[in-house]
Design goal:
The protein has 272 residues and is of the alpha+beta class. The protein is built from seven helices and seven strands. Its main location: membrane.
């Protein structure tokens, strides 16, 4: 038989409740689940909140030594959440956008040749493999915390993973330049790729909200990296439009005969 007291608060005034618990023979541990209620309905307390913190508020109390310890699973889950968030932020939130930037702005540089394609495919493949690991850790976290479900974050994660898998399969079924289905493949590849990037951004920020890191240095670091990518994209986009407008102007001047074409320059040295 063990006697003790419990402190609670009612209308701002503390109340001490004394109670006795009968333990099983040869056992001195009590598994305690504690929580707080929002309000009382009649004479009965209502259900407590069901956030991850509320559902993991458990500890083991040893009445013989007076020590209490939380379960090791909670600390393991906390570490897995950090690893899950870091991997997914790097893969879906940084590497995949980098691969898209590589394909969009480096493919028009003739001096690079096919190098841009290998860089694009390598970055995307590495990002997808890393994201698959993060996705697997997310599934493991769901299995370790039954009853805790983040509906929007989970649905976005599944959607992003499926789109990333479709992009990887697109590399295997890529038709050559002369194939009549090439234009349809390019439309599919661009739509799925940009959708995956946008949803990846959204889900990374959703993940920060889920783990309660909406005002953390981790989110600040990610925002700085994302801002750098956006700034580089804007600069490269402006440069691409400048080059496009310049080439369009030169082509118009050639059609109007204001600039000699290469064939005209070659024939100007031939005299009858």
């Amino acid at each position: 038989m063990y006697g003790g007291k419990m402190a609670t608060i009612h209308n701002g005034a503390p109340i001490q409740i004394y109670a006795k618990l009968k333990l099983e023979s040869n056992k001195t541990n009590i598994h305690l689940v504690w929580n707080r209620g929002l309000y009382v309905q009649g004479y009965s307390p209502t259900i407590h909140p069901t956030t991850s913190i509320d559902l993991s508020s458990i500890s083991t109390f040893d009445v013989l030594s007076g020590s209490a310890s939380s379960t090791s699973q909670h600390s393991d889950m906390k570490m897995l959440r950090v690893v899950h968030g870091a991997i997914n932020a790097i893969s879906w939130g940084i590497l995949l956008p980098m691969g898209a930037i590589t394909a969009r702005y480096l493919r028009h540089i003739e001096t690079l040749g096919p190098t841009w394609f290998y860089a694009h495919a390598g970055i995307q493949l590495f990002g997808f493999v890393l994201g698959t690991v993060g996705f697997g850790i997310g599934i493991l976290l769901g299995q370790m915390s039954p009853g805790v479900e983040y509906g929007l974050h989970r649905k976005l994660g599944i959607a992003v993973f499926c789109l990333g898998a479709l992009q990887t399969l697109a590399l295997l079924f890529r038709p050559n330049e002369r194939n009549k289905f090439r234009k349809y493949w390019k439309s599919y590849h661009h739509f799925v790729g940009y959708s995956c990037v946008v949803l990846g951004f959204v889900n990374v920020f959703q993940g920060f909200e889920v783990i309660g890191a909406s005002r953390s240095y981790a989110k600040l670091s990610y925002c700085l990296g994302l801002s750098t990518l956006i700034g580089v994209s804007i600069a490269l986009e402006v440069n691409s439009w400048v080059i496009f407008c310049r080439k369009s102007k030169e082509d118009k001047m050639r059609r109007d005969g204001l600039i000699a074409t290469s064939s005209d320059k070659g024939s100007s040295g031939i005299h009858n």
